[in-house]
């Protein structure tokens, strides 16, 4: 409760009995039982009887002043009379209204300024309706029959509410006189109908007042309870003043509050001429209710924690809209703080979420969440509550909801032209943070702390956000303290602190009880680094490539965009220098899986195969016999046992299927002291078919391979390929001197003609031979012809 009004006695021990009152401006008009009409002038300091009538010898039952028409309408001993307001002289009496028991007047001013006065008069069980014109009342419409004798009446626009002994009715003044029954009067059967404002009526039902609209509808929320049955009611927003037998009660409709009780000596009635001139009267006393200033009421309401009423009063002040909004915002902040202190955490955060309150001031309500550098600058209306047990969890969850909502709003506005945020303190005068980015940093860091307290599964998603603004050092400290190393690595990664992340991964990989034990986490992290951080990849992949080569190689071969986009030449150079054994599987992957057609990679893979094969051949316990048969011995190339056969098979296959290597740059790596099959394949790619065929026919002595070679390379449309079968026949009929191949470290027999083989080729492939060339050069000569492609010291390409 608070003091909304102050009461002061203005008429004391009047020797006449007061029956009714009416007021206008600072004038109070009183009608008495003895038939007097008294007019008082009320000022701030004094009350003066300005004028009065002589006794009319008749009881003044009701009085209504209409200053706009300078008249007083009086119900005088069951007659309706009109007096001049200036002179108090009687002007007229409505003859038809003789025997009236009640009257009610309604004055209106339209939007165009037109003024009208209507009056309804209850005469027995009829309702008469009049309007004022030309200094007199005229009938508005025909009489309306009533079900009983009226006890109270009140206008509401084009309807009149009439209270009878048992019921209330709403009568439409529309010419038809339609009547709507409302509800009973109550057990005491005392009716009271009073207009509150332009849209509402107050209707009494024992100690409850029901608020009714023009249609006669109401809800349970539109009721007002009293401690006794009101005899009269007056409305001065937001207060309803009820005149009770022993005192005056001041209440509000929304919220339903008892605001004030003023003890007076048997008050009976109330009237007013606006909020500053409210009068109460008993039989012989008159009091004036003077409203306490709204500013003082607001201050008192805030102190009494009546925040809703305080905000409602702010809306009634004459301040500008901006000033009102600021004051309401401040009260709402205090209300939200009060809810927090009452440990109504959800309700408190919901109020804060709707305000422009600095989020750091809200975070500061919670222990150990806001850094001390900020918290020491904030002041609160009262000491903060100590939270224990489940209260900590409940408050934490409410704060998470608040911060999530605030974060969403700030992120949307982060890139707007206005870099600064409009925030307000809980306590006026306390500094606030304006920078949106700084606020986001504090919010995200606080969310991290909250999730670590009560919702661990949300920590990682928060840190993975692209627009995560967590304070690095503070987040790093708390994550380490709580041994959340997986989440710490996410923080480092999103902040681009990759070396720190890799250091943690390496440290944790060696700890038996760590969730990051092993090398898998480091492999996955390195795979995500991309080409811009290749130096870090090289720095931290060594121990994995050494100890876990197969998994380590996935750092450079995993099917990820970041891995595929790595500069492959740099990766290859790194492997060749530091982990040469892994260069072959790396090249195999980028060529065979990723289908890289770069000639240098194809050349490199062939050279590495060659080096490995040669090394394995040199490591054999005995040199194979190179003679008339196959140079590499009786076992076909690529079918040797163990690793040698496997790698040589890969080499031969790759030389056969790849179209991207450069044979002229590779031929020197394949001398005549071994790998003759491989050399023949290279010579074929270079188009030197006769040299290749010499190896198959006269060194390897494998006619089947020679024929397969021709089958593969023959193309009737291409020069150099359409005569390959002719070259094979020549090789059989007139083989060149072995020394024409150049310096050879192995001992070979002089080649001899093989007429049978030549005839077989001729028989099977005669359609692929150029007969002109054949007849001119393929005679069965016993004398060996000079070799057109004999080796010269000037030619060292093979």
UniProtKB/TrEMBL annotation:
InterPro entries: Clathrin_H-chain/VPS_repeat, CNH_dom, Vam6/VPS39/TRAP1, VPS39/TGF_beta_rcpt-assoc_1, WD40_repeat_dom_sf. Residues 15-277 form the CNH domain. Keywords: Membrane, Repeat. It is found in: Endomembrane system. The keyword Calcium does not apply. The keyword Repeat applies. Its main location: membrane. CHCR repeats lie at residues 556-737. One of its GO terms (biological process) is intracellular protein transport. One of its GO terms (cellular component) is cytoplasm. It is a peripheral membrane protein. Belongs to the VAM6/VPS39 family. This is VPS39 subunit of HOPS complex.
